[in-house]
What we know:
mainly alpha, 6 helices
Amino acid sequence: MEYAENKGIKVISQNSYELESFIQSVAFREKQRCRFCYHDRFNSTAKIAKKGKFDAFSSTLLYSRFQNHDLIRQTGESVGQEQGVPFFYRDFRNGWKEGIEESKRLNMYRQQYCGCIYSEKERFYRTCR
């Protein structure tokens, strides 16, 4: 948020993480958790975009080399049709290395997982081996 402020970028963010709701929605379907997560996040984002009369909505997930871009695109386009606002897809991974270098130079926090508790568990256990 500090970076966006310094660059004059307007950001709308959701500062809550409904952990219990997320777990209830993916319990016993953990392998499909990303599909649920993308849909849930994009649905919220598309509603805000529609209310704000934005041209489109997108996701910072498109920057990650570790995310399923085909599923992101498919889900975003589907939600966009449902909500009546287009999903903007662009593969931002080509700037991944430069982004890492810049974030280190600026001493920014660099999250090592997507944000869900299952991803955090996977990250944690990888570092413990």
